[in-house]
User: Which sequence fits this backbone?
C-alpha cells in the first residue's frame, strides 16, 4: 500500500505546467466563491425587497357575467339618439346605428358625436359590451356621463383610457368595459353607491388635413351585471371568466418592479387569460397572456408595471389592492393561488437626468464612436495596413 | 506581433469598459441588480432569477467584490434614467469582458492569426452585447469555443464537459454537445458516451442543487418549459416565421424541433463523408444557431452565436470571406437591433428615446428587421456551404438593398397587415 502511494506521488508531477494550472484555477474559483458566501446579507442598503403577497391575502371570489340587463334595440327611433347639426351628417337607426359624415380638408382637427340618454345603475357593477365598425383614417371613442345619489353630475371617462381615441380599423370590433372602474378612474373620490350612468356618447374624430367620407356603425350595445362567487380558501371551483383575490392593504406602485404569481389553473381548451395587480381601480402591473399547458396545470405568471396596456373586465376591491385573473377566451373551472411574490427595486435617481438635447446628441455621437468607429478603424488598420502574418 | 496583439486587446477592453460605464439595458440590468442585491442585502437567494442558475452564480461571485467596496463606504452614482448604478453595471460586465478576452485568446492560439481573433474581439455586435447591453451571451460562448478547441486537440472528454458548461449558461451549448454525443454513439464508444451523459447529468444536478426543494417547480415552469417551447405565456418573437405568420408561440416555436431533427440527420450524413469531424461539428452547430434565429423567437443577442464558430470554421476551411463577413454581419445586426428593436436612446439614456425618426419609428419595422436578419443569415449559410469566396462590398450593397426593399414594400406600401 505504502509503495503504491509513493509510486503515485513519484509519478505525479507537482511541478508540471498542468498541475500549476489546476492550482491557479482552484485558487481563482475559491477567491470568487468565498467572498460571495461570506458577504451574503451584509449590504446595509434595502434597495431590493420582496414581500409575500399571500400573507396579505384577504378574500378570493370568482366572477362571471350575468344575464343581459339592458340592450339597445336600434328600432327606428331617431329621437333617442341625437347628434349636433354641424358638421353635416346622416344618422340612420334601423337594426343598427350608422353615423355617416364628410369631413372637408381642414388645418384643424374635426369631430362629430352621437349620444343618447340612459339610466344604468352602478350598484350591480355593469359591464358594457359594444360591437362597432369604424372607417379607417379616423379615430373613435365612447364616453359616459352620470349622476351621483344626490344628483351631482360627473363624467365617467378619462383621457388615456383604451376607450378613447381608438383608431378605426374598418372591421368589426367588440369592446367591453367595467362602468364602475371607468367611473372610479375618472373620479377617484366619487361615492359610486347610488350613482348611475345617464348618458352614453360615441364620437369620431379626424386629425388635421384628413378629409373624406367616414362612418361609425353600432351593431350591438348591451349591459351585463357582474356575478361574484366568494370562496373561503385560496381555492375555487366552478365556471368563471374572472377571479379576484383581494389583498388586505394597497400595494405601493412606487418602485414596484415585478410580481410573480404561482397558480394552478384549469379551464376550457380555448382558455386564455391575463393577470393584473390593481391598486384601487388603477392597474399597477400586468402579465402576459397565458394559455393552459400540456405539461402541468401550474403556472408561474410574471407581472410588471412596464407590461400594462389593458384593463381587466372585473374590478377588485377599490379600497385596497387586488390580484385579478381575466379570461379573454374560454372559462376557468379550477383555480388555486399558490404564491404571490411582490418585488420592489429602488435606484436613487440621477441628478444628471435633466441633460439638454444638445448633450443627448453628443452622447449618441460618443456612443457610436466607441461602438462602431474605433473598433472598425482598428480592424481596417490591422487587416489592410499592418498586415498580420503568422 | 506581440505589440499588435496588445494594442488589439487594449482597444477591445477600452471600448467595452467605456461603454459599460454609462450604457446598459435598463430591463435586463434591473433584473440582474435585483437578484444580486436581494442576496447581498437581505441574504435571500433568488429562486426566480430569470435565467439559468450558473449565470446567477457567476454574477454573485463578481458582485461580491462590488459589495466589498460598497461596504467600505463607496457611494455609487446613477446615470440618467438607468435602473442600476454606474460602477455596479461595470461589475456585471467583468465576467463578460473576461469571457470575450478568453475567446480572443482561444481563437488566437487556435488559428495563430491575429486578424481572426480581432474579428471577434472588435466585432461591434459582441462589443454592443458585452459593453453596452450587459447581456451574458459571451459567458456561454467562452466554454463553447473552448469545447471546439479541446475537440480539435482530441480532448473529447474535456470538450464535452466544456459544451455542457456552455449549455448551463445558455441552452444552445447543448446543441454541439448533443451532436458530439450522437457521434460517440454512432462510433459505439459506449464508455465515452457514458462519460459524456454521466458528466452532463452530474454537472446539471450540481448546478441545480440549491433549487431542489425550494424553487424547482418555479424553475421548471418559469425557465425550462419556456425554453422548450412548452410555456403558457404567449410572447412576441422577432423571427421571420412568427412575424409573417402572425403566430404567437408559447416560448420557442414548434418548428425548431423539425429544424434540430434535420440538423442531427444532416450531421450524421456529413460525418460519414467527412474526414474532419471537427468541421462537421462546427458546421452543423453554426446551422443550429442560424435555425434558432430563423425559427424561434430570435432575440437580438442570439445573433452573436454564429460569430466565433464561423471564425473557427473559416480558419479550418480557408474561407477568409466568411470570417470577414461575420464582421459586417455584426455591424449590420447591431445597427438593426439598436434602431429598430430598442431605439438609439434606450441603452444610452435608460429610457426609449428616438433620435432619427426615419430609421427608428416607421411602420412594420419589426418585419423589416426580420427580413434583413433572415437575409444576412442566409448569406452566412451561403458562405458556409458554397465555394469559398472573398468578402466583397457587393454583399453590403445586397443587404442594404434588401433592407430598403423591405422598408419600401412593408412600411411605405404596407403590403402586409403587420
Assistant:
Amino acid at each position: 500500500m505504502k509503495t503504491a502511494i509513493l509510486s503515485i506521488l513519484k509519478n505525479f508531477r507537482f511541478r508540471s505546467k498542468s498541475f500549476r494550472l489546476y492550482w491557479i484555477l482552484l485558487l481563482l474559483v475559491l477567491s470568487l466563491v468565498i467572498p460571495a458566501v461570506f458577504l451574503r446579507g451584509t449590504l446595509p442598503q434595502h434597495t431590493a425587497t420582496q414581500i409575500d403577497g399571500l400573507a396579505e391575502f384577504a378574500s378570493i371570489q370568482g366572477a362571471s357575467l350575468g344575464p343581459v340587463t339592458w340592450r339597445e334595440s336600434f328600432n327606428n327611433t331617431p329621437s333617442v339618439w341625437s347628434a349636433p347639426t354641424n358638421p353635416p351628417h346622416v344618422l340612420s337607426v334601423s337594426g343598427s346605428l350608422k353615423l355617416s359624415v364628410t369631413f372637408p380638408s381642414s388645418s384643424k382637427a374635426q369631430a362629430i358625436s352621437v349620444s343618447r340618454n340612459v339610466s344604468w345603475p352602478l350598484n350591480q357593477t355593469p359591464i358594457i359590451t359594444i360591437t362597432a365598425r369604424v372607417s379607417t383614417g379616423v379615430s373613435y371613442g365612447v364616453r359616459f356621463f352620470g349622476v351621483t345619489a344626490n344628483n351631482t353630475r360627473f363624467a365617467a371617462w378619462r383621457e388615456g383610457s383604451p376607450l378613447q381615441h381608438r383608431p378605426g380599423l374598418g372591421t368589426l370590433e367588440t369592446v367591453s368595459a367595467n362602468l364602475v372602474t371607468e367611473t372610479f378612474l375618472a373620479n377617484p373620490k366619487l361615492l359610486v353607491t347610488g350613482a348611475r350612468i345617464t348618458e352614453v356618447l360615441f364620437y369620431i374624430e379626424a386629425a388635421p388635413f384628413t378629409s373624406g367620407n367616414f362612418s361609425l356603425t353600432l351593431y350591438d350595445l348591451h349591459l351585463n351585471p357582474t356575478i361574484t362567487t366568494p370562496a373561503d380558501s385560496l381555492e375555487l371551483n366552478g365556471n368563471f371568466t374572472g377571479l379576484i383575490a383581494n389583498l388586505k392593504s394597497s400595494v405601493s406602485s412606487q418602485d414596484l418592479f415585478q410580481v410573480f404569481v404561482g397558480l394552478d389553473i384549469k379551464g376550457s381548451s380555448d382558455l386564455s387569460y391575463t393577470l393584473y395587480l390593481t391598486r384601487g381601480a388603477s392597474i399597477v402591473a400586468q402579465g402576459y397572456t397565458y394559455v393552459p399547458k400540456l405539461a402541468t396545470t401550474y403556472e408561474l405568471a410574471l407581472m410588471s408595471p412596464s407590461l400594462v396596456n389593458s384593463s381587466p373586465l372585473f374590478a377588485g376591491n377599490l379600497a385596497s389592492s387586488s390580484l385579478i385573473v381575466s379570461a379573454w377566451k374560454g372559462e376557468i373551472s379550477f383555480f388555486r393561488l399558490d404564491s404571490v411574490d411582490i418585488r420592489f427595486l429602488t435606484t436613487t435617481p440621477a441628478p444628471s437626468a435633466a441633460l439638454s438635447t444638445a448633450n443627448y446628441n453628443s452622447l449618441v455621437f460618443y456612443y457610436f464612436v466607441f461602438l462602431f468607429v474605433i473598433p472598425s478603424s482598428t480592424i481596417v488598420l490591422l487587416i489592410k495596413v499592418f498586415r498580420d502574418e503568422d | 506581433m506581440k505589440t499588435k496583439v496588445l494594442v488589439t486587446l487594449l482597444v477591445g477592453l477600452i471600448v467595452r469598459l467605456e461603454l459599460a460605464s454609462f450604457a446598459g439595458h435598463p430591463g435586463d440590468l434591473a433584473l440582474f441588480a435585483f437578484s444580486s442585491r436581494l442576496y447581498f442585502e437581505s441574504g435571500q437567494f433568488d429562486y426566480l432569477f430569470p435565467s439559468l442558475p450558473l449565470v446567477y452564480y457567476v454574477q454573485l461571485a463578481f458582485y461580491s467584490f462590488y459589495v466589498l467596496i460598497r461596504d467600505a463606504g463607496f457611494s455609487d452614482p446613477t446615470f440618467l434614467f438607468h435602473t442600476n448604478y454606474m460602477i455596479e453595471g461595470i461589475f456585471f460586465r467583468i465576467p463578460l469582458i473576461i469571457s470575450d478576452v478568453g475567446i480572443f485568446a482561444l481563437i488566437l492560439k487556435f488559428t495563430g492569426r491575429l486578424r481572426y481573433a480581432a474579428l471577434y474581439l472588435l466585432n461591434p455586435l459582441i462589443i454592443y452585447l458585452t459593453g453596452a447591453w450587459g447581456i451574458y451571451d459571451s459567458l456561454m460562448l467562452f466554454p463553447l469555443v473552448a469545447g471546439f478547441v479541446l475537440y480539435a486537440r482530441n480532448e473529447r472528454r474535456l470538450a464535452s464537459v466544456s459544451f455542457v458548461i456552455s449549455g448551463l449558461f445558455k441552452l444552445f451549448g447543448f446543441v454541439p454537445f448533443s451532436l458530439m454525443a450522437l457521434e460517440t454513439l454512432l462510433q459505439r464508444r459506449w464508455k465515452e458516451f457514458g462519460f459524456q451523459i454521466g458528466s452532463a447529468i452530474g454537472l446539471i444536478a450540481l448546478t441545480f442543487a440549491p433549487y431542489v426543494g425550494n424553487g424547482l417547480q418555479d424553475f421548471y415552469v418559469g425557465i425550462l418549459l419556456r425554453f422548450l417551447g412548452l410555456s403558457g405565456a404567449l410572447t412576441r418573437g422577432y423571427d421571420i416565421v412568427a412575424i409573417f405568420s402572425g403566430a404567437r408561440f408559447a416560448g420557442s416555436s414548434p418548428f425548431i424541433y423539425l429544424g434540430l431533427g434535420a440538423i442531427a440527420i444532416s450531421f450524421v450524413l456529413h460525418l460519414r463523408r467527412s474526414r474532419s469531424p471537427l468541421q462537421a461539428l462546427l458546421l452543423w452547430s453554426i446551422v443550429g444557431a442560424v435555425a434558432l434565429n430563423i425559427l424561434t423567437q430570435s432575440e437580438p443577442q442570439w445573433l452573436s452565436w454564429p460569430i466565433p464558430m464561423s471564425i473557427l470554421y473559416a480558419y479550418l476551411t480557408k474561407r477568409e470571406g466568411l470570417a470577414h463577413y461575420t464582421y459586417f454581419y455584426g455591424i449590420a445586426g447591431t445597427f438593426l437591433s439598436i434602431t429598430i428593436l430598442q431605439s438609439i436612446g434606450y441603452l444610452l439614456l435608460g429610457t426609449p428615446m428616438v433620435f432619427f425618426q426615419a430609421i427608428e419609428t416607421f411602420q412594420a419595422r419589426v418585419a423589416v428587421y426580420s427580413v434583413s436578419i433572415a437575409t444576412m443569415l442566409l448569406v452566412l449559410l451561403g458562405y458556409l456551404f458554397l465555394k469559398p469566396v472573398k468578402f466583397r462590398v457587393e454583399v453590403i450593397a445586397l443587404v442594404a438593398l434588401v433592407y430598403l426593399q423591405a422598408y419600401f414594400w412593408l412600411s411605405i406600401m404596407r403590403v402586409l397587415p403587420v
